[in-house]
Amino acid sequence: MFQKLFAFALLLLPLSTSAQVAPAVSGHGWSLSAGAEYSNFQPDWGPDRLQGIAVFADVDHILLRNLGAEGEARWLRFSPPQGETEDNYLLGPRYRVWRHHALSLYGKFLLGGGWITYYPSTIGSGSYFAYAPGGTAEFRVARRWSVRGDYEYQFWPSAPGLAFTFPNPSHGLSPNGFSVGASYKIF
C-alpha cells in the first residue's frame, strides 16, 4: 500500500511544482490597457465649454520599450449649450518621455475624425479630418490600475469650411481640453 501511494505522489509531483511557478512573460510581451475619462474641452466654436466622456485603449510591447499606440473615442455631449456637440475618434503613436517609480509621462500624436454640431444647432453639422498632439501623465495606483490626466490640442484644418466663413478663408478649428480618468491593465 505504501509503495502505491509513493508512486502516485511521484506522478503528481510535476503538476504541483509547475503550479507554483509564476509565468515569466504574459501576453507574449504585449501590454493592453483600457479605460475611461471625463473630458472638458473648449470647442473653438461657440461661447461655452463642452463636457463628456471618452474611452481609450493603450498598447505597448516590451521590445519597443517606450513606444506604443493609443486609440480613443470621445463624446462631448453632457448638457450641450444650444445643442452644440463634438465627437472624435483618434488613433496614433504615443511615447513615454519620462518614468519615475509609478509615474509616467507620455507624448502622443493622434489622427482620425471629428464630428461637430455647430452652435446654434440650426447652423448644421460637419465631419472633418483631425490630428491631435497631446500629453498624458499616468500614475499606477495598483498592479493593474492607473489614474491619468490628459491634455490634447486638436487641429481640424478644413473646419468649419467656406460655407460658414465666406468671404473670408476658413482657417480650421482647434478644440482643446483636459481629461481625467482611470485605466485597467488587461495583460
Automatic annotation (TrEMBL):
Query: Where does the secretion signal sit in this chain?
Result: 1-19
Q: Which Pfam families match?
A: OMP_b-brl
Domain of life from the UniProt record: Bacteria
Check the record and name the InterPro entries matching this protein: Beta-barrel_OMP, OMP/PagP_B-barrel
Give residue ranges for domain Outer membrane protein beta-barrel: 10-185
Q: Which UniProt keywords apply?
A: Signal
**The keyword Cell division is annotated on this UniProt entry:** no
Query: Does Signal appear among the keywords?
Result: yes
Which positions are tagged coiled coil?
Answer: none
Name of the protein in its database record: Outer membrane beta-barrel protein
Which classification does the entry list for the species? Bacteria, Pseudomonadati, Acidobacteriota, Terriglobia, Terriglobales
